[in-house]
Amino acid sequence: MKQKSFAKDSADSIWSSYYSYIRHLESNTFFREAFEVLEERIKVLNPKSVLDIGSGYGWSSLILADWLRPTCVTSSDPVVEISYDEMRVLAKEMDLEANKLTIERKSWRFEDIGSGELSWDMIICVAAIHHAHELADDLSTLYQNLNPGGTLILANEVIYSTFKYRAKMAKKLLKIMYHNLTKKWALNDQLVGQGRFKYDSDLGDWSVSRDYYCFLAECVGFNEPEFIETEYVSYKQVGHAGNEMTISHVILTKPI
After folding, report:
1. Is the pLDDT of residue 87 over 70?
2. Would you give the DSSP letter of residue 147?
3. Is residue 227 within a helix (H) or strand (E), and if so which, with residue range?
4. How open is the CA angle 244-79-145, to the nearest 5 degrees?
5. Which one-letter DSSP state was computed for residue 18?
């Protein structure tokens, strides 16, 4: 993507971080391409109220607003601060018609969206649910805030096959045994949980198995999950360590 010139008052405050992220997204990753696999599915569902939670800089919210216009998309992230005007700048960088998109910005965490006080036709989490510390509780909260028949999409996740997941989990368990036998522990290195393991301790990223997603969906009340495996790996760099698995999406539907 070529660097563009902007008016000082519209872009200087976000140039160094937000623009750099979008440039990274477009130039170095397949995140956008993997997400766009969902376009036709989301257009067919045609939700009238959409929450994109854990949206970071809001790139996925902008794409959703473009697909579903004039529907307003609520974009929420508790860490990244970005104004509506700044998001319009990013929309232009992504070759979207910024003046035709309807976005509102919030700073909610999963637990902040209430227990049914708000309701949505669709809630989407793009590369976000793997940060959840209490996955079952967070999925329950999202379920409670969906309208009957509503859809929860966990997009851009890396989901191992059952065989590979079990092999990875066994390796983690052996590592825990080694730490206990040698008394060489690492602080804050919680490696495994029920149905999932932490693959990046620094970022707090968890990998969840398909079987565990199915178990949680049944416990929370969703219909049986649908898994969409894309053809895209995470990074365009050949041989990147993050390209072990392709990007997948999980679609969960609340019964009517």
Report:
1. yes
2. E
3. strand 226-229
4. 85
5. I
Q: What's the whole-model pTM score?
A: 0.86
Q: What is the C-alpha separation between 238 and 11, in angstroms, rounded? A: 33
Q: What is the pLDDT of residues 211-250, one digit of tens each?
A: 899 999 999 999 999 999 999 999 998 888 777 789 999 9
Residue 49: strand, helix, or coil: coil
Q: What angle do CA 52, 108, 39 make, to 5 degrees?
A: 0
Q: How many C-beta neighbours within 10 Å does residue 218 have? A: 12
Amino acid occupying residue 74: T
pLDDT for the residue numbered 209: 87
Q: What is the largest CA-CA distance in the chain?
A: 61
Could you give all domains of the chain from N- to C-terminal order, each with its CATH number? 8-159+209-253 (3.40.50.150), 160-206 (no CATH)
> 């004039």: which residue's tokens?
70
